[in-house]
Amino acid sequence: MEESNIVVFGVPIGKRFKDISEKLRKTSIYLEVFDIDRKRNLLENIKISDLGDLEIKNLEEIISYTKNIVQKNKIPLLISGDHPTLFSFQAFDEKTKIISFDAHCDLKDEYEDEKIIDLSTWSGNFDSRVNGATWLRRLCEKIDPKNILLLGIRSCDEDELKFIEDNDIHYFTSSKIKEDIKSVKQKVKEFTKNSKLYITLDIDVFDPSIAPAVHHPEPNGIFFNDFQNLLESFKGKLVGLDVCCLNPIQNNEVTEFLVIRSIFEILGLIS
Fold this sequence. Notes:
Radius of gyration: 17 Å
Strand content: 15-25%
Shape: globular
Number of helices: 10
CATH superfamily: Ureohydrolase domain
Number of domains: 1
CATH topology: Arginase, Chain A
Largest sheet: 8 strands, parallel
CATH class: Alpha Beta
Number of strands: 10
Order of helices and strands: EHEEEHEHEHHEHEHHEHEH
CATH architecture: 3-Layer(aba) Sandwich
Distance between the termini: 19 Å
Strand order of the largest sheet: 4-1-5-10-9-6-7-8
């Protein structure tokens, strides 16, 4: 812990959290950290401490736990079944910007269905106003929405789009990213320049053909090279990261390998 600059911990949200936590930790053993195309070690100068999975009585404890790590000048990396971001992001100051890689806007005011209940339940509790479809709407009540950037979205209703436009939230759909990556990268560069950045990576941002093990496999997602291209345009300082919404498939580790490599790519922003 003293030597580390990245501190990993699991946040037990979602009915399958334990399975997710175990699968990702196990998969991380098998991936090379060296990128042959760029001829560099993605984790050069990275030292990781894994504190295991939290045992929490309420979700608010995520704030204090994350803040404790931030105050030690270390970068928290949260693994969860669903977005812990509503709480973990509150550990950072008001100038920090949040970048959400996600197929969905997650800006509904209230929402409930069987998949969301499975994804967002913790300790037997579910809240229709605080879950995987609403967390960013709740966060907008606490921060300046202009400090939000949505990347890869492709599932949205009329009310969410109106909320995005009314609050000047920055966004690029997966189609826009694939069709005009050059202009998107330039705008992402401008958004991130000289800023502290918190990244939340929902695995369903990727196309289901390369990430089938998710709860909501929306068609027309981004591909791994799109993800790499976007990260290249990040010009700020990474201060926090969470990864969520894996839904493991028996005897199929394709998505798990993609998740771990994506984490390596993000941490490569530091080294």
